[in-house]
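User: For a benchmark we're assembling, each entry needs the component sequences followed by a predicted structure for the full assembly. Here are entry 17's components. Please fill in the structure.
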Amino acid sequence: MFKKILIVGCGLIGSSILRGSFSRKISKKILVFEKSKKNISKIKKINSKVIILKKLDKRISDIDLVILSTPMSQYEKIIPYLNKFLNKKSIITDVGSTKQNVLKLKNKKLNKYLDWILSHPISGSEVSGPEYGTKNLFLNKWCIIVRDKNKNKVKKIIRFWKKLGSKVILMDPIDHDKIFSLTSHLPHLIAYNLIKTAQDFQKKEKRNVIKFSAGGLRDFSRIAASNEVMWRDVFFNNKKNMVDVINMFIKNLNSFKKNIQNFEDKNLRKKLINSKKVRKMIINLKQDVSEPDFGRK
Amino acid sequence: MFKKILIVGCGLIGSSILRGSFSRKISKKILVFEKSKKNISKIKKINSKVIILKKLDKRISDIDLVILSTPMSQYEKIIPYLNKFLNKKSIITDVGSTKQNVLKLKNKKLNKYLDWILSHPISGSEVSGPEYGTKNLFLNKWCIIVRDKNKNKVKKIIRFWKKLGSKVILMDPIDHDKIFSLTSHLPHLIAYNLIKTAQDFQKKEKRNVIKFSAGGLRDFSRIAASNEVMWRDVFFNNKKNMVDVINMFIKNLNSFKKNIQNFEDKNLRKKLINSKKVRKMIINLKQDVSEPDFGRK
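Assistant: Structure for entry 17:
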């Protein structure tokens, strides 16, 4: 499909692209740019055919597809090398969780004759590092591709993600950043905030409460173990939407508080019942399975 | 262990006690008080030896152990029947998620010669109903028992929960309600609130955003599908602690918002890194497994 692809940054997402690309025969030649020594030795174990680059130089001049899978804050440092060495037939894509900032960066810093089609696979986990990658990370998961004038190269990027198993959808960057501020970025921030609150509570009460986390705290702690650099980048780059959804969340939480303080039975129960509808929707949309969870085995 | 036990209310928790008690030979004779016709036919299928009571009358006079596993708001209606028909050798226990209110109710309404040892198994799921119960619901999970003067009967209740597989710990009711407001009640309220916020957002944006729930919203929607009567009872009965932890949570969330608005890199990242420590603790305490989660299969 592509003669030669380059994965820049090979953590959980990059190594999943690597595994998926080899196993689905997306490219015969796969190069990985990675600086961490610890990661390099792990990547070599994934597939002996992978070519590791410790720096970006003329060896990337004939690359067909470049996938940026570093934290977004690294993109700016990488662009000068793409400008210097890539040929104009190549396509660049990325996996960043926010898109308006990436588009701005591309317009400002990338040579005009180079093409960067922005994408965002909705997949991940609380773990980081190439050892956790899996060839099926993207299977049946959404991948958002940002609309672009270059229809031909968009088609190629669509084919790439479909080959990896994704369900692809095109979106405008403004819509993208708004939607995912709610469905992804806010839930992560809320999980982090709950764990921070648990830590403060434990300090104040001077006793081990985390010991009893099976009551619900457990599931949030998993989400709150996600990579801190990646999430710092997301929160900062989606600042305006984050502030909006945080304000909505706090407004609703104050209303819940009022319901509890005043024993407002009807109002409270209506909210509790309504959230079951969302759960049903999510299961019908195959975003989760219906089997009950009694705690992971 | 007990000659005759009575389970009052046979949903997820009650039917798990029923299954666990039969399979671990805790009692030869198990009676279930249940009014819902739909539930009764499901309960009969669990074990043909179960005796169903549609009302509480003199048939319960020789019961050794009564377990209240209805929503807490039902306890007050049940007590008069226990007062009327139970003998003083019997023990009452319950599975309610808050304990100060139950203690108050017991002191006010239960005949003085009857003994009620309060307990709270930290187990459950987002599903309700007897069909979802499992004999191992309590296995290796905490069960909190409220300290009581009647050491002899406390011992029997400890043995009962240990037989069902629980790890038992004694606690004061004030401590109990405080600790679980944070580790269980707040996480559930937060999950409900996130789903409410998603519904409001969807209405405002007039587009299907829940479709993209795999980004984190999914896991919260599971928790927010829990039984609404049970959780209404919990929130109302733990009002003071709920208000305290909600306030702590909002304070911390406002601080996160400030970090994002002002690009406070160091402060933000410190919080994000710190929550990994809690995750490690939870895994070391065997409250969860360390395997990464890529979405449930």
